[in-house]
Amino acid sequence: MTTISEVRTVTRGSWAAITALYRGSVVLAGRICRCIGRSIAWAWSQAGAVPAPEPAEDEPEKPPGKRSFGETAAIFGLGALLASGAISTIAALIADQLADIHVSDPVQGVITTAGGAGWAAAAWAVAPPPGPRKPRDKEAPPPSEEPVDPAAEPPTRDTVAALLRDLSGPTGGVHLKTLAGALPGGPWTTGQVRDLLTGMSIPVRAGVRMPGRSGLEGVHRDDVPPPPPPTPGGVVAAGQPGNNNTNNGVTVERREGMTIIKDPADHTRHHTV
Q1: Where exactly are the transmembrane stretches of this chain (predicted)?
Q2: Do 164 and 121 lie in a common domain?
Q3: Does 200 score more than 80 pLDDT?
């Protein structure tokens, strides 16, 4: 074991003891100052109080009176002068007794040691407990670049129109509540669906009829946007068959527990509801 390790072993915990001694000394000094202040306040109140005269047998007891500020200050000053004289006399007597004790006298060491030990014991007794340690600020890890969920993006007008055509069918239209449950990126409220349709220039009417429930706010079937025209086919190389399919628009596939919306214009994703 090196010398530094030995010193650390011996002095382990001494810093906490020194800190407690310092905090307790501050508390003791504060209590002494408060005692002095309270003593001065008590002396001032006694100097300004006038004893109440003894009441007669049939008279109620009267509260004590108060002197004027000048009289109170005069009595207080006289009492302070007498007290300072008494304290000075006692201090002089103690100083004379201590002067008779030589430096080499063991009594002086005993008095000094006892006084210091008493003060330290009192300071440790009244020292407040240490507070919790604050954790050191660690460098925050860089934010992870997580891919954004495409379903959280607002749906396009073609997607909403395809949902409206699929949900309306032969009925009178689609209620906002029904459309809110089918829109991707939910949950949606009817107010949010109304704002979405208004921003897409799709009218919202009151009293739209659907099977099982009528008279609610929604999109009438006459206001549902028509499907987009089929996109023209591209240039086909010689000897290759052309794309003669007519289902190149937005399509909606219903499966068990989900609805898949395919938009040919969006080559990166499909909406699953």
Answers
A1: 72-95, 107-127
A2: no
A3: yes
Strand partners, 210: 213
Q: Is the peptide bond before 226 cis (omega within 30 degrees of 0)?
A: no
Q: Which domain holds residue 196?
A: 150-226+248-272
Strands 173-175 and 213-220: antiparallel
Is 217 domain-assigned? yes
What is d(CA 46, CA 75) in angstroms, rounded to the nearest whole number?
A: 9
Q: What is the pLDDT of residues 230-243, one digit of tens each?
A: 666 555 555 555 55
Task: Give the model confidence (pLDDT) of 95-151 as tens digits.
Answer: 777 666 555 566 667 777 787 888 888 887 888 776 666 665 555 555 555 444 444
pTM: predicted TM-score of the whole model, two decimal places: 0.33
Domain total of the chain: 2
- Asked if the structure places residue 133 within a domain, the reply is no
Confirm whether 6 is domain-assigned.
Answer: no
